[in-house]
Amino acid sequence: MSKDHEYQPLSNDTRELLDEADVDAPSLQPTGIRKFSAWIMHHALAVLLVIETMALVVLVTVLLRRPSQADGGMPLGSQKVLYSPALSAVENEVKVYHLGFPGDLSPFQIPSSPELDLMWSDLYNFGVSRITKEEAARLPNKTHAIPGDPGHYIAELDVFHNLHCLNKVRMALDPDYYPDWRISTSNNHISAQKHATEHISHCIDWLRQSIMCHVDTSVIVWQWDSKANESRVKGNVAHTCRKFDKITEWAKERVLVNTYDPTVRIEDDIVIPVLHQEIS
Fold first, then answer.
1. What stretch of H or E contains 233?
2. What is the pLDDT, as a whole number, of residue 38?
3. Which of 52, 108, 130, 171 could form a disulfide with 181 if both were Cys (CB 3.0 to 4.6 A apart)?
4. What tens digit of pLDDT does each residue of 23-40 get?
């Protein structure tokens, strides 16, 4: 750009015209209108400030109440936890499983014997419980009153049924020691063992559903084995578990005081407002 075309300072005449325009512009609006406009602007800003403050308070409250992803939490609205009278006894702990191979066997991995039978029986022989009528009324499915024990109802925590089923599967795996639990196989139908075969089939599928229901998300890892010169699976990892001892304490405090008679029908006024109250 040549010097002839560079920007030049405003001439005195031009500045005077602009100054006059700036001085005269506000006078185009009456004083009342200017005051009303200022009042509207002032109050609009105040209302906007209040709305923004309220929105900020709501946002902070929501963030504080929401569990973090790092904690593995879920919003309460997305959790579906059915009532159990034993929920008060639930307490978590971290445990590492026995691998179950030589070098890391559990106490339950011994040959079939009266000693092993007793160990298994001690895991669940107290599993059928007596609960109060108030507790029974809160269950998602209706249960029956206990004859001869007014005000109490029969119940069993599913963990003890699972252990019963697993024990029966164990016995079926050693039919020479437990002949009553010998089951039919694909090439060996034993009509006399129909009950055992059906019972074991029930137990295996019940355990399958229970495992899928509880979905243990503990992570099994692979680690490098320098001797084998390859990475190998490592199952001795930490798990988040519910303390079994706390649940057994709860159950042992509520064992049946009398032998349960399933042939006695007792009517009551408990109404459970949930579908599928009776399990066929």
1. strand 230-234
2. 64
3. 171
4. 444 444 556 666 656 666
